[in-house]
Design goal:
- By secondary structure, this protein is an alpha/beta fold.
- It has four domains: about 90 residues, Alpha-Beta Plaits (2-Layer Sandwich), CATH 3.30.70.20; about 110 residues, no CATH class; about 160 residues, FAD/NAD(P)-binding domain; about 130 residues, 3-Layer(bba) Sandwich (FAD/NAD(P)-binding domain), CATH 3.50.50.60.
- It contains 18 helices and 21 strands.
- The strands form seven sheets. Strands 4-3-2-5-18 form a five-stranded parallel β-sheet, covered by helices on one side. A five-stranded parallel β-sheet has the order 7-14-8-9-10.
- Strand 9, helix 13 and strand 10 form a beta-alpha-beta unit.
- The relative contact order is 0.19.
- Bound molecules: flavin-adenine dinucleotide (FAD) and iron/sulfur cluster (3 copies).
- The site of flavin-adenine dinucleotide has 38 residues, from helix 7, strand 3, helix 8, helix 11 and helix 12.
Amino acid sequence: MSDHVPTDPPAGPHGHPAPPFAITLEVGSSLANQTGAWRTERPEYVRRLPPCSDACPAGEDVQRWLYEAESGGEGYERAWRSLVRENPFPAVMGRICYHPCESACNRCELDEAVGINSVERFLGDEAIARGWELPAPPAATGRRVLVVGAGPCGLSAAYHLALRGHHVTVRDSAQQAGGMMRYGIPAYRLPREVLDAEIQRILALGIELRCGEPVADLRHELREGGYDASLLAVGAHVSRNIEIPGGTAAHVIDAVTMLRGVASGEQPQLGRQVIVYGGGDTALDAARSARRLTGVNPVIIYRRTRERMPAHPEEVVQAEEEGIEFRWLSTIAAARDGHLRVERMRLDDDGIPQPTGEYEELDADSVILALGQSADLSPLAGLDGVRVSDGVVEVDERMMTGHAGVFAGGDMTPGERMAAVAIGHGRRAARHVDGWLRGIATSEPPRERVIGYDELNTWYYADAPKTVRPLLEDVRRQSTFEEVVHGLDEGSALYEARRCLSCGNCFSCDNCYGVCPDNAVLKPGPPGEPYAIDLDYCKGCGICVSECPCGAIEMVPEEI
Ligand SMILES: Cc1cc2nc3c(=O)[nH]c(=O)nc-3n(C[C@H](O)[C@H](O)[C@H](O)COP(=O)(O)OP(=O)(O)OC[C@H]3O[C@@H](n4cnc5c(N)ncnc54)[C@H](O)[C@@H]3O)c2cc1C
Ligand code: SF4
Ligand code: SF4
Ligand code: SF4
């Protein structure tokens, strides 16, 4: 009889139980026989890239920290520590990230995506409440890096560079750090005490922050400051404007200027009839802020349809709940004496808006333009080799510009304009800056294969509907800048973490151990050790593969 008949209850590599939403099998009791060499295939434990981690632009290993969080208690701190290895802003991102990880989550096909973003926020808030600190930086390398811009990209890069022992100076033209997280995103989506707490924790690593000090000429700063490398992350703050015929008759302001004013404590003069022109998230932030400031419902004018609006659908729904009105398929034709002339549009076969010649009049005390932003790249003007295309700076796969030792990231470089992308750029750039400073060639790792839904054995997962985040009541949403979306309580966060299917990676459910008719699966001894196959006993039937819930075992051809 085999000497590895299982007796222990299921336990994970960290000694924590398997997620409760996976049905696990009892251990088999068959007698095992040595098989000899007649197998043509044998099972192999694999590690696969889950789609959530693949889709997170900040580069988080989402599954890893969800797995730690699943055990609750001390697991939360382990989860947070695992998360901040990549992203030092979990409480911020748990509020403002548009969570492409959830759109990619395999659980979408079973019921609804795991609430990754809400668990991330829970962990970030726990860390702030409990005062968890980041790991101390290693011994100083003596290398000095200048980071220009204290937005998510610059601060993420500063964090990762400090954790590699480099001295980092961050310069920003604004009075406080945070970039668009502070001067763009309204406080009802991101309370400033949360932002401040996460920024302070990063700065406590010994980063030198110099606010109110714009960099006008990077070449001069590098020469005079004695820096060994620099990262430019100045964002995109220059609003794109259009000429509205007669527009001087109306009060016209751009959305970024208006939001920056509100964030700085100013009260913009908007009047009572506010029109917002544009279809992105900035338009929604401007309209929702105006609603809170004026007490009257603003109107958003957008030239395409709701379906083609670049704003995220959940933001549109929240705006509607707060009373924002929309005029789809409309453009502003002219402004005159407190009125706007708005033309109806129609979409042609290519989805391009075309004029119809039909007009309506709208009252308007002010018009807020939210038509996108471009980057002010003048600090780079004197540097040889820097290439600009479509208004953004070209970088290679190391995030380096055409000028050796000058790196760039975030909104001023090509890519989607969102905070998680900027954070990911900062992290990647820091790794390559570090290589540059040490004279080591660095490159991006090859892309791993992502495990798909059809590779899972979803029969083993029980139904577990997604938790809904509570919202502030409507009346207060229309008149205050109090936070709208609330966090999950501990029970809900734990439940949400346990909804993870652990796609492509073993979560120690013991099914393979239980179903193997030949008891050929060896359970790990010390926590953290992987399962193994005793090939003296495995006859290659593949039952373990077909009964593994998460696709963590594959059959491979037998080596002859
Ligand atoms: C209204 C609004 C709402 C948004 N909402 C979201 C959201 O909910 N979720 C999301 O993921 N993304 C959102 N975004 C996008 C997101 O904020 C940006 O993609 C992100 O902030 C870009 O980061 P960054 O570090 O590249 O630049 P920024 O955040 O813009 O930071 C750049 C920094 O550089 C500084 N700077 C500029 N020029 C100089 C200079 N010459 N010298 C020194 N300092 C300089 C600026 O003061 C600023 O602090 C929003 C953007 C806007 C405008
Ligand atoms: S940063 Fe955004 S994409 Fe990444 S895990 Fe968090 S919510 Fe998902
Ligand atoms: S179920 Fe879990 S591992 Fe799979 S994609 Fe979703 S969050 Fe990631
Ligand atoms: S490999 Fe699969 S079946 Fe075996 S313990 Fe891990 S998750 Fe369970």
